[in-house]
């Protein structure tokens, strides 16, 4: 169930926090595990109509990975690796089946002549996230850096914890183990958790959802008919929409975790202040980046074996990062473009920029807003049309139409101003300094109820990362 659903905000969340506070501490993980399964089943049923099926897959994967973790205990290195290989085959095989198989069959239809559209398979919510979370656990157990969990309830609570289940952040069991064993949330945890939840909700409803209307307008006009200034305005708008949508969700997840005394990892660190593409992705969706770094890039050799090996490792990471997001070609192009810029930075640009501060930052902003266009538009013909408008010397239509740009900029300038301001460090620093003060509580209280008003009077939009 979406965190921005009023039923979640006013029924599920208060009931869960109250029950969590009332049950004995030894029963809290059982409540978290079973309650999270119930919330997941309800949300999956609402969004896909396959709640029981999706919950069965989640529960089955939890059992399988728990057992493999237990089987690795006290085994020698060879057997641990054999168990890990089999577990990874099952985990990634499951992910491939639900996320990629039918897209592959559809792509092969012109060659095979077979139509598989009659097979209706619904991808379980959050499968990309919880598969990565469980495989990280098994790899750590295999390496000997983490003792396998003996309690199935505790392991299930780690996997299924509803604050992070469907869209991350991707947690590490080693970071949660101590908290899972003994959680005693107090009033301060609930207060600060609610503050983070309210900020995230405002980011989603008052910023991301409002930015989404600009893109709807561009699609309605048609990409071939928008002016170049409006195309760039749309690209920047989508960049801010995606940031406040996913960052908002991550803040809500962190706040929910804080209410339950669970340390949900921070997932964003002001990425638009970066001065390189590689720096941007150390600060954007940080838990996914850390997963690829620790479980793919470093095992492939990282930067330890010369430039050529490093470039090959980066290529593998970014190809698979694109593929993780989806099976359509735009994600592979997106990953390839990011790899190309990161490789250029490592080979040339890092030295060329030297100690410059402004130029590298402008370079990052110029590049990243265009990569988000590739990320968003999955139809390659539409994608080409959009880039013809960004760079009008490749098209035939007029580059400038001050009428359309002026019309929409005059309607959205204030939203861009607020969005850009909130990408800077000063609002966060103000919050951290005064979060126990009325200077923070009163505006957050107002923003929370304003967000509720928008949700109650509008249709609302799904979180953009819910499809991954």
Write the layout of secondary structure elements.
Layout: H1 6-22, H2 28-48, H3 51-72, H4 77-107, H5 109-112, H6 127-143, H7 152-160, H8 173-181, H9 187-221, H10 228-259, H11 277-280, H12 286-297, H13 307-325, H14 329-353, H15 358-376, H16 380-390, H17 402-422, H18 425-434, H19 438-457
Helix pairs in contact: 1-2, 2-3, 2-7, 3-4, 3-6, 3-7, 4-6, 7-8, 9-10, 9-17, 9-19, 10-15, 10-16, 10-17, 12-13, 13-14, 14-15
Task: Explain briefly what this protein structure is.
With 468 residues, the protein is mainly alpha-helical.
Structure description:
72% of the residues lie in helices and 0% in strands. The chain is globular, with a radius of gyration of 23 Å. The longest helix is centred in the middle third of the chain and has 35 residues, at 187-221. Helix 2 (28-48) crosses helix 3, helix 2 (28-48) crosses helix 7 (152-160) and helix 12 (286-297) packs across helix 13. The mean pLDDT is 91. The two termini are 15 Å apart. The chain has 468 residues and is an all-alpha fold. The chain has 2 domains: 6-184, no CATH class; 189-275 and 357-467, no CATH class.
Task: Jot down its keywords.
mainly alpha; 468 residues; single chain; globular; 2 domains
Radius of gyration: 23 Å
Shape type: globular
Residue windows where pLDDT falls under 50 for at least 5 positions: none
* Nearest-integer average pLDDT: 91
């Amino acid at each position: 169930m979406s965190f921005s659903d009023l039923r979640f905000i006013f029924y599920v969340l208060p009931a869960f926090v109250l029950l969590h506070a009332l049950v004995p501490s030894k029963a809290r993980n059982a409540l978290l595990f079973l309650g999270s399964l119930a919330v997941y089943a309800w949300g999956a049923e609402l969004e896909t109509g396959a709640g029981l099926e999706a919950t069965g897959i989640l529960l089955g994967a939890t059992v399988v990975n728990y057992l493999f973790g237990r089987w690795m205990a006290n085994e020698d290195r060879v057997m641990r690796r054999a168990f890990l290989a089999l577990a990874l085959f099952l985990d990634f095989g499951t992910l491939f089946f639900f996320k990629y198989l039918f897209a592959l069959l559809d792509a092969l239809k012109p060659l095979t002549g077979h139509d598989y559209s009659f097979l209706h398979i619904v991808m379980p919510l959050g499968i990309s996230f919880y598969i990565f979370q469980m495989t990280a656990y098994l790899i750590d157990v295999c390496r000997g850096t983490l003792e396998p969990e003996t309690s199935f309830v505790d392991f299930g609570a780690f996997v299924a914890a509803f604050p992070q289940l469907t869209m991350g952040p991707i947690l590490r069991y080693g970071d949660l183990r101590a908290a899972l064993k003994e959680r005693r949330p107090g009033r301060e945890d609930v207060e600060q958790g609610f503050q983070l939840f309210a900020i995230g909700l405002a980011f989603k409803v008052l910023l991301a959802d409002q930015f989404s209307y600009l893109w709807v307008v561009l699609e309605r006009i048609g990409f071939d008919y928008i002016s170049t200034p409006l195309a760039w305005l749309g690209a920047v708008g989508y960049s801010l929409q995606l940031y406040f949508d996913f960052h908002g969700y991550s803040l809500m997840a962190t706040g929910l975790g804080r209410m339950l005394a669970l340390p949900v990892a921070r997932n964003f660190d002001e990425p638009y202040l970066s001065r390189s593409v590689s720096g941007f992705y150390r600060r954007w969706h940080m838990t996914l980046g850390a997963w690829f770094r620790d479980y793919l890039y470093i095992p492939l050799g990282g930067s330890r074996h010369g430039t050529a090996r490093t470039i090959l490792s980066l290529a593998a990471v970014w190809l698979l990062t694109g593929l993780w997001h989806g099976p359509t070609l735009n994600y592979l192009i997106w990953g390839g473009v990011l790899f190309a810029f990161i490789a250029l930075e490592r080979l040339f640009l890092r030295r060329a920029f030297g100690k410059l501060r402004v130029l590298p930052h402008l370079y990052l902003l110029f590049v990243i807003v265009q990569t988000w266009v590739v990320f968003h538009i999955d139809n390659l013909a539409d994608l080409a049309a959009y880039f013809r408008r960004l760079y009008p010397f490749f098209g035939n239509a007029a580059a400038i139409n001050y009428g359309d740009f002026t019309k929409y900029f005059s309607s959205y300038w204030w939203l861009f101003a607020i969005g850009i301001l909130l990408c800077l460090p000063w609002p966060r620093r103000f919050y951290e300094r005064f979060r126990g003060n009325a200077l923070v509580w009163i505006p957050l209280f107002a923003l929370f109820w304003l967000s509720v008003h928008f949700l109650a009077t509008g249709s609302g939009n799904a979180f953009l990362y819910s499809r991954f």
